[in-house]
Write a structure and sequence with these properties.
Blueprint (H helix, E strand, L loop, with lengths): L7 H11 L8 H25 L8 H29 L14 H9 L8 H27 L2 H4 L14 H6 L8 H12 L12 E6 L6 H12 L5 E6 L6 H12 L1 H4 L9 H12 L4 E6 L4 H8 L10 E6 L9 E3 L6 H13 L6 H5 L3 H15 L3 H11 L7 H8 L8 H16 L2 H9 L9 E2 H11 L10 H14 L4 E5 L5 E5 L2 H14 L3 E3 L6 E2 L3 E5 L11 E2 L6 E5 L17 E5 L21 E3 L20 E3 L20 E3 L3
Parallel strand pairs: 1-4, 1-5, 2-3, 3-4, 9-11, 10-12, 11-13, 13-14, 14-15, 15-16, 16-17
Antiparallel strand pairs: 6-8, 7-8
Helix pairs in contact: 1-2, 1-3, 1-4, 2-3, 2-5, 3-5, 8-9, 10-12, 14-17, 20-22, 21-22
Family: Belongs to the disease resistance NB-LRR family.
Pfam family, one: NB-ARC
Keywords: Coiled coil, Leucine-rich repeat, Nucleotide-binding, Plant defense, Repeat
């Protein structure tokens, strides 16, 4: 299952398995399943096309249509899974079933026994529900034609000439820079290490600045370029972007090298090969400094590299990228977040025009309010210059006494009246929409964890698997595939790696606050995860619920939600008392109760045995004392983590957990 395509991936696999001759489907039911399979396959392709376009570029009717299709796919998968579980009522004690059977093999085994007289009632029930889904999909297909989805959502041939690049305004905005001296000098040292004072008779030096969006890569590159360009005969600073028009990139290089010669010339008649030849000829006998900003993939860099010339004159090339996996064959420089003091200077300068809070505000009695709000903001910005400047630009337009209210409502990008905020959100969302679909769901799922948390790698991979984000791949285990996804998110600078062991293995990650706010915004828009905390704890409309540090004082009533669709429930330092009994979640797949020091008894686990779809359960760092005996009914449970809990003895029914793949407990 993927965020963009709902449960289509796993659903199509299950429908295909049902259609095999060996299962001898009833003629009428077989026709219905065939119809659903063909219709869903077509809709799957359409959803993939919608997913290639950033949200703000998609027609609203098309977006609503796609959401309805995803919702239908979830409902269909829930129906099939519930039916399969009901075949044996969740109480199958056949110990000969392979304990580590993957989901598709398990599905195949169950479907062998679907159609016997004993289960006719279940068959009639699923047939009726399939009819309902069929009618829903027919209506969705009609709207697909009405809205001309296939024409509207084709992936745009985005180029720097037709797509607004929000970094351009930041690049040429006149601002005072803070914390730039140290990284600028470090980068200059890397560029000229091993060279003589003039860089004569030296090979070309290439350095790549790598880091997440908003870290200041472009600013550092521009600062170095501005300081050093006078030492070179010519130079160019060229933005590339996510979907570059390579002819324009090469023309921009030429214009940067010699504006008078190339600005008014008719370069459009030249093709890429001719433009590359023109650049190489121009650079052949000149010492030059070129910055290629914002490269997204290796093929783009390889093409640009064809135009570069190494003439032993000490040429310098700087590139910037958000993706460490872009292979440029260059030295890598990773900027650090700016210090708290420099963050404070940048914040105050963008608001007041001075590096300190003006004296007039100290005497006006609002200094404490300014200090309080600024400290909160700078903590969240975590040294990201782009984030600091963005928030400051919003607060500068508001009365100081309203800063606290404005800060809560900004959400790092929800103030629709501020163009700077919109540009910042675009910068960060570019990286999200550039990812393949399977990574988007995995990344978005990380927003279920609390802010500033260190997220254990093993834990989140098993949760991805339980949710169905990771499908079987021939020759690769699901967990190994999950590790690949995790590492790719690291290499794309979407998550920050933490806790490297002595052996060099990566243990976990954390999210930069800016990235987390983007994910939370996307998650809310997609109804992907509902966060229950001290500010919002009464209503849930998504399939995933995260309780975060919610105490008894904040629980006035149980949370209102559609319990029939919830797949993940996570409580981080919160109380399960806020939720209905587990027995009321018929399709629950993930249960994670972590760092809960309040609960001493295991009453919140009552009815656990009825959660027949449960695949992952963690009671890590809780005071839970015992597991219920009916845990043996959970035939699909793959992972049980009771590390650092109060559980000292396992019930005998644990022997019935035929699908258990991982048990983590204290010695």
């Amino acid at each position: 299952m993927e965020l963009a395509t709902g449960a289509m991936g796993s659903l199509l696999l299950k429908l295909a398995e049902l259609l095999k001759e060996e299962y001898k489907l009833h003629k009428d039911l077989r026709k219905e399943v065939e119809f659903l399979s063909h219709e869903l396959e077509s809709l799957h392709g359409a959803l993939n096309k919608v997913a290639q376009v950033p949200r703000h570029q998609v027609d609203e009717q098309v977006w609503i249509w796609a959401r309805e299709v995803r919702k239908a796919s979830y409902a269909m998968e829930d129906i099939i899974d519930t039916f399969l579980v009901s075949v044996d009522g969740g109480h199958d004690h056949d110990h000969e079933v392979a304990a580590k059977m993957n989901c598709l093999k398990w599905f195949k085994e169950k479907t062998r026994n679907l159609f016997n007289l004993k289960k006719l009632a279940d068959h009639r029930s699923i047939a009726g529900k399939i009819q309902d889904i069929k009618k829903q999909l027919q209506a969705v297909a009609l709207r697909r034609s009405m809205y001309k989805v296939d024409d509207i959502v084709a992936k745009p041939a985005a180029t720097t000439s037709t797509m607004e690049d929000p970094r351009l305004l930041d690049l040429y905005r006149v601002t005072k820079l803070f914390g730039i001296d140290e990284p600028r000098e470090e980068l200059i040292s890397m560029l000229f290490e091993g060279k003589d004072g003039h860089g004569v008779h030296q090979e070309m030096k290439i350095v790549s600045i790598v880091g997440y969006g908003g870290l200041g890569k472009t600013t550092i590159a521009k600062a170095v370029y501005d300081k050093l360009k006078v030492k070179f005969q010519c130079g160019a600073f060229v933005p590339v972007g996510q979907y570059p028009d390579m002819k324009k990139v090469f023309m921009d290089i030429l214009i940067g090298l010699d504006k008078e010669k190339y600005m008014n010339s008719n370069m459009m008649i030249l093709d890429q090969y001719q433009l590359i030849s023109e650049i190489k000829e121009f650079l052949q006998d000149k010492r030059h400094f070129i910055v290629i900003d914002d490269i997204w993939d290796t093929p783009t860099w390889e093409l640009i590299k064809c135009a570069l010339v190494d003439n032993d004159l000490g040429n310098v090339v700087i590139t910037t990228t958000r993706k460490s996996q872009v292979d440029m064959g260059a030295l890598v420089y990773t900027p650090k977040e700016i210090s708290y003091r420099d963050s404070q200077k940048l914040f105050y300068t963008n608001i007041f025009g001075t590096e300190e809070c003006p004296e007039k505000y100290k005497s006006a009695g609002v200094y404490d309010k300014i200090t309080e709000v600024s400290e909160k903001i700078l903590k969240k910005c975590n040294g990201s210059p782009l984030a600091i400047a963005t928030i400051a630009s919003v607060l500068a337009k508001k009365p100081i006494l309203k800063w606290s209210h404005a800060y809560k409502n900004i959400g790092f990008g929800h103030d629709e009246d501020d163009s700077q905020v919109k540009r910042t959100m675009k910068i960060l969302s570019f990286s999200y929409y550039d990812m393949p679909l399977h990574l988007r769901a995995c990344l978005l799922y990380l927003s279920i964890f609390p802010e500033d948390d260190c997220i254990p790698k093993t834990m989140v991979i098993w949760m991805w698997i339980a949710e169905g984000f990771i499908h079987d791949k021939e020759g690769v285990g699901q967990f190994e595939l999950g590790e690949r996804y995790f590492n790719e998110l690291v290499s794309r600078n979407m998550i920050i790696p933490v806790e490297f062991t002595r052996s060099g293995f990566l243990n976990g990650c954390r999210l930069h606050d800016m990235i987390l706010h983007v994910l939370r915004s996307l998650s809310k828009e997609e109804n992907f995860i509902s966060i229950l905390d001290n500010e919002q704890h009464t209503s849930v409309g998504s399939r995933r619920v995260s309780i975060q540090k919610l105490g008894l004082d904040n629980i006035s009533t149980q949370v209102v939600m559609d319990k029939s669709q919830v797949r993940s429930v996570a409580a981080f330092g919160g109380l399960m008392d806020a939720l209905p009994p587990l027995s009321s979640f018929p399709v629950l797949r993930v249960l994670a109760v972590v760092l809960n020091s309040v609960l001493k008894e295991s009453h919140y686990l009552e009815g656990l045995g009825s959660s027949l779809h449960l695949r992952y359960m963690s009671l890590l760092l809780t005071r839970t004392r015992q597991l219920p005996k009916d845990i043996g009914h959970l035939k699909l449970l793959q992972v049980l983590d009771i590390g650092c809990s109060g559980i000292e003895e396992l019930p005998d029914s644990m022997a019935l957990l035929q699908g258990l793949m991982c048990l983590h407990a204290d010695r």
